[in-house]
Structures are given as C-alpha cells and as structure tokens.
C-alpha cells in the first residue's frame, strides 16, 4: 500500500482524522472539489449530513476513474458553508453513513475543514477535494 497513516501521541487526540499520511507511490491523483450532485440529475440533499455523504460518493467515483480508492488518499480538504462547531455531529453522521460503502477508513486520512461564506451554487453546503498517491 502506498500510504501509511500516523497519529503521533503528542498531537491532538480524539479527532476524526489521522494527523499524518506518508505516500510512497509514483503518481499523484487530485480530485477536484466534489459536491452532492446526484448521478441521475435528481435534486441534491438539503441537509449537511446528506450532502457530505453524497459528496464523498462522488469523490469515490473520481478516485475509481483514476484507478485509486480511499486507501490511497493522503489528504482531504472540506469546505463547508456557514460552519459552526455545532454542525460537527451532522458532518460526521454524513461521513459515517457512507464510510463502509465507499471504503473510507475511520479515522479519516489527514483532513482540513474550512469554513466558507458560500460555494459556487445556491444550496450547496459542502465541497470535498482529495489527493491520492498511487
């Protein structure tokens, strides 16, 4: 496996992601920000949890197209509109609801969650980017 995950004892404990990923592959894969658009064009979920789950499914599709999976991911960057700490439960519900389905190990790879005022389209609450090593 080209990725080794670490969470040194001296770093903040009890977070839903690992602090360090070491990639030792030959190719880098960059997945552009994915939102909760549905493959069939139906309406996106309106809640944060539903959008997180669908955005992660879309990240998986991008990874698969490149011959990768979540086990190859060294970094996730998540943008959330109007972020407040009180939204963490809904965010994690979305992650946990699809983790087994998409092959996302918990805790997640190293990740950053960035609060934004808005994203490119009304109603979009979350956008997720991924970087993988193959």
From TrEMBL:
<dbReference type="InterPro" id="IPR006175">
    <property type="entry name" value="YjgF/YER057c/UK114"/>
</dbReference>
<dbReference type="GO" id="GO:0019239">
    <property type="term" value="F:deaminase activity"/>
</dbReference>
<comment type="similarity">
    <text>Belongs to the RutC family.</text>
</comment>
<dbReference type="InterPro" id="IPR035959">
    <property type="entry name" value="RutC-like_sf"/>
</dbReference>
<dbReference type="GO" id="GO:0005829">
    <property type="term" value="C:cytosol"/>
</dbReference>
<protein>
    <submittedName>
        <fullName>Enamine deaminase RidA (YjgF/YER057c/UK114 family)</fullName>
    </submittedName>
</protein>
<dbReference type="Pfam" id="PF01042">
    <property type="entry name" value="Ribonuc_L-PSP"/>
</dbReference>
């Amino acid at each position: 496996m080209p990725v080794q995950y670490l969470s040194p004892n001296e770093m903040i404990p009890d977070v839903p992601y690992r602090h360090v990923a070491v990639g030792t592959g030959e190719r880098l894969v960059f997945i552009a920000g994915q939102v909760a658009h549905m493959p069939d064009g139906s309406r996106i979920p309106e809640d944060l949890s539903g959008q997180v789950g669908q955005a992660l499914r879309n990240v998986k599709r991008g990874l698969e197209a490149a011959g990768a999976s979540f086990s190859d991911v060294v970094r996730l960057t998540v943008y959330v509109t109007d972020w407040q700490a009180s939204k963490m439960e809904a965010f994690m519900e979305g992650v946990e609801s699809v983790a087994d389905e998409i092959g996302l190990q918990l805790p997640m790879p190293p990740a950053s969650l960035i609060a934004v005022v808005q994203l490119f389209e009304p109603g979009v609450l979350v956008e997720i980017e991924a970087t993988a090593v193959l």
